[in-house]
TrEMBL record:
Residues 191-289 form the HTH araC/xylS-type domain. It comes from Zobellia barbeyronii. This is Helix-turn-helix domain-containing protein. The keyword Transcription regulation applies. It comes from the Bacteria.
């Protein structure tokens, strides 16, 4: 079974590395790590990348996003992504662990920012020239701080990340209305639900199971998912299963019947029907089309 690589911060070594944080200009990052970053992979950290130049496509969890000047992307731990450039890319990139941020910035959780609080929220922004100038200066300040040895370096880096996430949250207008109306309780429930689905999706595919795990009613859980993402709990479960199915179909090298079994479906024909309903093609058609 082929395993999709999971990259760790310590793989991007630097003499001044903090182990839990990394920053670089994008061109240098891509050149230094060309052996690992261009193939499909995952991370165990949060990643933020800004493009000042370049073109191509950035595929995140089987959705392709265009790369152009002002493109900005956010990735949460566990997401699959890869690059495909048509012209040389320039910009900035940084990533960090959850603990690096949350142990330095009190009373702020990284998942509270709208682009991180759910896998279902768009992982990208297209910045206007004015926005790009401001945000690029923030990225540059982070990169400069990372590459010098001074006291309170970790604290300042965390503060700069917090500032840039606040600025980007204000630009992330797609969810402005939702964010203003959502309570922290709803966001906590949504986060707990997504983690529970990640753990139990192979064996548990019913909404009531997850409601029981979260000690709330199925009706209230559906109210939370509809308010935050506009989808039912069942739809979220099915979407996660579909994503995991695509990952296994493309990256695992397993037979399609074995993929079905790994996802908790003993009857491949039934799994294939469910997959086709959601993906608009059979698992075999998806594998052939993607590869």
């Amino acid at each position: 079974m082929k395993v999709l690589p999971i990259l760790h911060i310590e793989q991007f070594e630097a003499e001044n590395a903090t182990v839990e944080f990394y920053s670089n200009d994008l061109a240098t990052h891509l050149k230094n790590n060309e052996a690992i970053v261009h193939k499909s992979h995952k991370h165990d950290f949060y990643l933020c990348v800004l493009f000042l130049k370049g073109s191509g496509a950035h595929e995140i969890d089987f959705t392709s996003y265009p790369i152009k000047e002002g493109s900005l992307f956010f990735l949460k731990p566990g997401q699959t992504h890869s690059w495909n450039f048509d012209s040389p890319a320039e910009g900035y990139i940084f990533f960090h662990t959850q603990s690096f941020f949350e142990l330095s910035i009190s009373d702020v959780k990284v998942n509270q920012f709208p682009f991180y609080y759910s896998y279902k929220n768009p992982p990208s922004l297209n910045l206007s020239p004015v926005e790009l100038q401001k945000i690029a200066s923030r990225f540059d300040e982070i990169n400069v701080e990372y590459n010098i040895n001074v006291v309170y370096k970790k604290q300042k880096l965390a503060s700069l990340i917090n500032l840039i996430y606040i600025d980007l949250s204000r630009i992330y207008t797609v969810y402005d209305i939702a964010e203003n109306s959502l309570s922290t309780t709803y966001l906590k429930i949504l986060s707990d639900l997504e983690r529970a689905i990640e753990v139990f999706y192979k064996t548990e595919k019913q909404a009531h199971f997850y409601a029981d795990k979260l000690n709330i009613t199925t009706k209230h859980l559906n109210r939370v998912t509809k308010s935050t993402l506009g989808k039912t709990t069942t739809e979220l479960i099915q979407e996660h299963i579909l994503l995991e199915a695509k990952r296994l179909i493309v990256h695992s090298g397993n037979s399609l019947s074995h993929v079905s079994e790994l996802l908790g479906y003993e009857d491949y024909a039934y799994f294939s029907r469910i997959f086709k309903t959601k993906a608009k093609m059979t698992p075999l058609e998806f594998r052939k089309r993607y590869l």
